[in-house]
Amino acid sequence: MKKPDTPGVIAPPPLIYLGFVLAGWGLAELGARPEAVEAGLGWLAAGFGLDMPVRRGLALTLIVGGLLFDGMAAGLFRRRGTAVEPWKPTTALIIEGPYRFSRNPIYVGFAVTYVGLAIAMNSWIALILLVPCLFVVDRFVIQREERYLAAKFGPTYEAYRQKVRRWL
Length: 168
Fold this sequence. Notes:
Blueprint: H1 13-31, H2 34-38, H3 52-80, H4 105-120, H5 124-128, H6 130-163
């Protein structure tokens, strides 16, 4: 049987980020319940202590900035005629634009958007969960994509990989 021409990621990366941020929101909501506070779990609901206008402005800036960065990076895929979705075959190696500074600018943009959402939700726990989220993305998405790209583009990808950092 022929191996599929995809990296075989565990799940669509936006869903991984969304799952973690929603888990953080859910834990914060549970921590705000009176019985959770009585049980000593009220810290799960702790916020950032920012005034509402400051928090909203910061959150909006990060969310919009992250989405614009994602859009710019994904737009390069579209212009080059290759799929941005990691469950579809890659037909071109993109190394210009934000890909000159990061091999994964879309995932960096998702992380910036995630931080904005955590701030918008006023949830420390959601922000803390970004760490395991990035671990999952790094190990179960990016590493699989890198093996796939190395096999598909060979020395060209290896030279790019040596020159440009994985994240920032």
